Amino acid sequence: MSPFKPRILIFIDWFLPGYKAGGPVQSCVNMMEHLKGEFDFYVITRNIDYCEVQPYESIISDSWTKTNTYLQVYYASNRRLTYTALAKAALDAKPDIIFINGIYSLYYSIFPLLISRKFNDVKVIVSARGMLAPSAIDVKGGKKKLFLQMAKALGFYRHVCFHATNNTEELHIRNLFGQNQQVKIAPNLPKIYTLSFSGLSKQTGMLRLASVARISPEKNTKYALQVLHEYTFDGNIVFDIFGPVYDEAYWTECVELINSLPGNIQVNYRGSIEHTKVTETLQQYHALFLPTRGENFGHIIFESLTAGRPVVISDQTPWRSLEEHNIGFDIPLNNPAAFAESLQIMLNQTQEEYDMLTNAAYLYAQQVSQDKQAVELNRLLFR
What we know:
By secondary structure, the chain is an alpha/beta fold. The chain has 2 domains: 7-189 and 371-382, Glycogen Phosphorylase B (Rossmann fold), CATH 3.40.50.2000; 206-369, Rossmann fold. The protein is built from 14 helices and 14 strands. It has helices at residues 23-35, 83-93, 106-115, 134-137, 141-154, 167-177, 221-230, 248-259, 278-282, 299-306, 322-325, 336-348, 351-369, 372-382, and strands spanning 7-11, 40-46, 64-68, 71-76, 97-101, 123-127, 161-164, 183-185, 206-212, 236-242, 265-271, 287-290, 311-314, 328-331. A hairpin with a 2-residue loop joins strand 3 (64-68) and strand 4 (71-76). Helix 2 (83-93) packs across helix 3 (106-115) and helix 7 packs parallel to helix 8. It is globular.
């Protein structure tokens, strides 16, 4: 007889085969890959990708579908997306643990909290996914602050355990909901990689940069363009932007900056990229350029390092002291001149100097991917 495997029911707005929502999807997929020998997973999600209206091809909507030995997925269609339908799907899954991703989504965060009360002796975990950081709350902050005030007053989270990915996120949660709020720390897990990286030609005075993220104020696409616009660079820079346009008005401001860049700076918008093609795409560039306003993990940062590519990022992520490791730069957002200086350093690099960075990035990523303590903390989150 096979050993008992607890069932984890996951609510998340977007999931595979979608890829445009970025980090939260990848966080869940990675966690499943690491823990699939110990748990069975049931996922309730949308039948469309982020910023899309057409359902995925070749999936069955509004019923449970077994995708492999440890995973079943319920793809909810918009026309049948109701509290009653979600509650029935959840009851059919017969979970031992309910894992809710996010805070503000009506159907995949708030309704699941209410649905969880239908179960006896089921552990309920809410993963904040960075949404309770002050910088995240400030984006369209009026509605968010009102909801959080109501949630606290009504005791929405009184009987749940919050999942924080680090000590800072735990502090943000306790600041909002009190020191008695149950919180467990379990870092996001990296993707399991077996591939090696390939080198890239590097000429002094030439630099190819990529951004792989949704185009939004949170990811600071406009800030990256302002750095390229406001500072003078000795050499030629190509900056290719990958990701869905989340905010059309914001993108219009970005395009205005792109159109006014000097001749030695070339910026191209390349659209969204399937996750399976991210690593090989990153390997066509010298570095990831992402001055994000905040990440609770930053899967694309880890993926860049795994591809053997250094990163130029803000200091608002867990990836710090990058210069000490010779794998890139993490820079305060109030110092755009330092971003420009870092890009110029990379512009000036010879092939030999650049190869030292790529080797260091790849080796550093391998060390992170073998962190057994991180896997154990995720196991304890559900145990």
